[in-house]
Amino acid sequence: MSKQLSLGKISVSNPKVWVVIGVTVAGIVILTETRRRRLRARKLEREDLGAFVERFELLPFPQPLPPAARHLLSGLTFAVKDIFDVKDCVTGFGNPDWKRTHEAAGKTAVVVTALLKNGATCVGKTVMDEFAFGITGENVHYGTPTNPRMPSHIPGGSSSGSAVAVAAGFVDFALGTDTIGCVRTPASFCGILGCRPSHGVVATIGVLPNSQSLDTVGWFARDPSILHHVGHILLQLNQVEPRRTRCFIIADDLFQLSKVPKQKSIQVITRVTENLSGYQPPRHVNFGQYVAANVPSLIGFREESLTLQDGISTLKALSSVMFLLQRYEFKTNHGEWVKAVKPRLASDVADRVNAAVDATHENVKTLYKVRTEMRAALRSLLKDDGILVVPTVADPPMKLNSKKGLSAEFHDRAFALLSIASMSGCCQVTIPFGKHDGCPISVSFLAFHGADKFLLDTVLDTYSSLQEQVTLVSHSSPVPDTNGHMDAAELLKEKVCSLLAYL
């Protein structure tokens, strides 16, 4: 018998054969491991709905020993938008080229440290729109977080990952930033609470700027008491404040913009004020006309339009000033970096960034004047007890990967509403109001600049009653509006339902 075993023409005693076999086996092992890791990554992505760009754990500072009271946020978890510095991590700003060309942070953002000191645990960084430009929540580099309320629709942005992490229950609360609606929009689309505080009252040290005259640090929560607790920490508020009466001021013309029947929202507000003590009967205002009369510097930005009502064209002018201000400050902050690096950007983001970098600004002083007049106008309207009630956004979230993108009408209606707080610096809280035609809807409460505790106290005071009335109204028949007319769409729907029942 031969001492050598052979397989066909290949001698297994040949060392080269074993090298080939070894390399082949190693290749199979590597391929298997690579596939396993990819599957694991996809599983993790499915598990966190694509909300996170980075997972880690920042433990809270040591807590006081009994019998001392526990810290306000003890036991709570939170996530932060990838715009906040965390020591030894590179702040990504939603773009790989930004991350590649910047060093790890030397310190953690002031607001993140404040939350850790008060007992909360940070569990990671979340996806955002590139450079905090946009309100869709889409990111071509890191993926678009899945909206837990409507998985086939956008989550809203730019703080999309933070909103999704809260809405899905992965964390108790999350930090975002709001420049032109970046907390309020995803809060509305994901059906959760979102707070944009008064401009300048929450520290932005360790937060990358988009436009510092508009930027605020905001936060999301599902529970109004947690929203309230986080506000107390970030705003450094006193625990006790004398109670004062409140008056809701309903912006009737702005509810006309909304796809949601306005009487449902107004009916909820009216019933709550009737059932709670300390609330005056709601007042009504044509807000667009009020702004036109009280912000004279806007007149130079108004466009004559046959399709927009006079007051709404004023708010469109306000939003155009907001965009001009954002572009001017973004160029000042990051224009040189954009020109030097030429980052890879999604097409819609590239349009905004290029518009900012290429813009020439000859009326900058007027932009700031509009902002000053807008703040004074809101202070005069709301005084010490007023809370303006508006729709957060006018339209439901669009579908994911929509080839059309944001329509001009969606854009105009959305930013007419969102520019109010951005340009006045007032505080605003987005409050979920159930669903309409299967889509999450919300209203927003606004209070004058610096009235953050008053606003957060109001939300906490009214939230359970609001949700109870939302449930009741959603199952009730349509009601006439203030002029005795029923919303046409609701009336048609009721007639159809009656006919079907008869048949």
From TrEMBL:
InterPro entries: Amidase_dom, AS_sf. Residues 70-456 form the Amidase domain. The chain crosses the membrane at residues 17-34. It comes from the Eukaryota. Keywords: Membrane, Transmembrane, Transmembrane helix. Pfam families: Amidase (PF01425). The keyword Glycosyltransferase does not apply. The keyword Membrane applies. This is Amidase domain-containing protein.
